[in-house]
Amino acid sequence: GKGGWSLRAATKAEPFGMEGDCGCDDAQPTRLGRDDYGWILSSGGVWQGIVVTHFSVYAPIQGKYASVGTFADIEEDRQDVSHRVTVDASNPDAARYPLIVATLRDKREVGRETVAFDAKRMRYPAAKDR
User: Fold this and answer.
1) What contacts 24+ positions apart, CB below 8 Å, involve 110-116?
2) CA 128 remoteness from chain centre
3) 3 state SS of 129
4) Are residues 62 and 72 in contact, defined by beta-carbon separation less than 8 angstroms?
5) Would you put residue 23 in left (φ > 0), alpha (ψ -120 to 50) or beta?
6) Contact 130, 117 (CB under 8 A)
7) Tens of pLDDT along 104-118?
8) 10-residue block means of pLDDT along the chain (130 residues)?
9) Cβ contact 72:65 at 8 Å
10) Among 68, 13, 74, which residue's Cα sits nearest to residue 36?
């Protein structure tokens, strides 16, 4: 109402990536629901030429920022496949917006899945739980 920000959640530190390089370098606040902003960021590393990365979703939960979802980006045994995670804000009044996880091969989308927020478990379910 006053046109300013109000603090809803705070966490002192979270570990990301390896050796100080993390996805939080370019993370931007992202609207994840009607009243909440959080972050979707990518982190991971390279070991012997193999890239392994994942997306982490952070949102306010009971006064702290918490991990509410993790999605694979590039997997160790599938180096030719990557993913993109975006927010589906088509219903702006939803308490938590669903996420769209797109699968890409050679930078072309070859599949997509919509992942709804599970309010009972307070997270976006991992692939094995969907």
Assistant:
1) 114/88, 115/69, 115/71
2) 16
3) helix
4) no
5) alpha
6) no
7) 998 899 999 999 999
8) 72 59 69 93 86 90 90 92 96 96 94 96 87
9) no
10) 68
